[in-house]
Amino acid sequence: MKYLSVKEIAALWNTSERSVRNYCAAGRVPGAFLTGKTWNIPENAEKPERSNKSKPALQTLADILKEEIGWNMNTTYTVIKKCMAKGAIERKEPNFMCHALIAKEVVQEAEAEELIGKLFGGSPDQLFAALIGSQKLSKEQIENLRRMVAELE
What we know:
By secondary structure, the chain is mainly α. Helix content is 52%, strand content 12%.
């Protein structure tokens, strides 16, 4: 494979040498590598898209929840505030980005315990019986269940 210099690529891409160096340093040019202080760039490398180009607008959480479950914006923000007060999520700048502070597995475990308590009197075996009562399980599914039970013992 033939490699070109920053100067040659800059001329080929009709951009500045500085931009080419920045693309390479940011890892945006596949196959480019440094030899000392000199960038070696594959001759067939394509010019990366400019990162400051306008991107399509992201949907907000309020938009998604309105679409999927019919919540209005006020309901969404009320739920976010309650989750923040409980320490379940954190909201940061820019644009009030939210992210979970509790692992998905922790939430699933708590929800499962609540479900078992409310619907099955706190008895996991009754939940299990209800789940498989009307279904035919494959041999593989049965074996997976046996393994899970064995791990609990």
